[in-house]
Design a protein that fits this description.
The structure holds 2 protein chains of 2 kinds. By secondary structure, chain A is mainly β. Helix content of chain A is 0%, strand content 50%. In chain A, strands 2, 4, 5, 6, 9, 10 and 11 form a 7-stranded mixed sheet that branches. The radius of gyration of chain A is 13 Å and the shape is globular. By secondary structure, chain B is an all-beta fold. Chain B is built from no helices and 11 strands. Chain B has strands at residues 4-7, 10-14, 19-25, 29-37, 44-49, 55-58, 61-65, 71-76, 85-93, 101-102, 106-111. In chain B, the strands form 2 sheets. In chain B, strands 2, 4, 5, 9, 10 and 11 form a 6-stranded mixed sheet that branches. The chains are: A mainly beta, B mainly beta.
């Protein structure tokens, strides 16, 4: 399995500001993903973070609002831009393809974001 | 888009009882994964299933990949208080892009 860390673990932000969340994996992985989990809800995929190229966004999510970087095989960032209270959520990073290229996807602990 | 229907939505059981939950899909999946999420944590992978009909155990947990490739179930035997949490099924569509589709989750509460 892969061990995934996220920073920050939580934050309280003002409306209109932006927050960048970092995701670090302890080994090289094939794929990295970003999810949103709203309170009491399931996980919704925001985008696939592609190494060295633009992320692939799911329907309803756009690059201007959620810019993503993935400069190498172990690190990715998600920025939540121009935040509003509706962005209050848990943001989760995940990775798959560690070591033995399996489809098993492992998650970080999440970043709990509150927008005032 | 593709959806997973997970049931039941919640369960409140007595310690020692067995638990069963399942997920169904309208389309075929290549992989089924079962996760547990506790408050303040990310989902933790419990069991991964890769072939239709596959039955896999992890301690008191047993999961099966349905023959039709459109469903999966998770059983927990002899539940204990630390089994409390939210259990999610997740499926990887046959398009094999690596993406997962998640079920709505089953909240499990265990009464000592």
């Amino acid at each position: 399995s892969a061990v995934i860390s996220q920073k920050p673990s939580r934050d309280i932000c003002q409306r209109g500001t932006s927050l960048t969340i970092q995701c670090q994996v302890d080994s090289q992985v094939t794929m990295m993903f970003w999810y949103r989990q709203q309170p009491g809800q399931s996980l919704t995929l925001i985008a696939t973070a592609n190494q060295g190229s633009e992320a692939t966004y799911e329907s309803g999510f756009v690059i201007d609002k959620f810019p993503i970087s993935r400069p190498n095989l172990t690190f990715s960032t998600l920025t939540v831009s121009n935040m509003s209270p509706e962005d209050s959520s848990i943001y989760l990073c995940s990775a798959s393809g560690a070591k033995a290229a399996t489809n098993e996807q492992f998650f970080g602990p999440g970043t709990r974001l509150t927008v005032l | 888009g593709q959806q997973l229907n997970q049931s039941p939505q919640s369960m409140f059981i007595q310690e020692g009882e067995d638990v069963s939950m399942n997920c169904t899909s309208s389309s075929i999946f290549n992989t089924w994964l079962w996760y547990k999420q506790e408050p303040g944590e990310g989902p933790v992978l419990l069991i991964a299933l890769y072939k239709a009909g596959e039955l896999t155990s992890n301690g008191r947990l047993t999961a099966q990949f349905g023959i039709t490739r459109k469903d999966s179930f998770l059983n927990i035997s002899a539940s204990i208080p630390s089994d409390v949490g939210i259990y999610f099924c997740a499926g990887q569509p046959a398009s094999n892009t690596g993406k997962l589709i998640f079920g709505q989750g089953t909240t499990l509460q265990v009464k000592p």
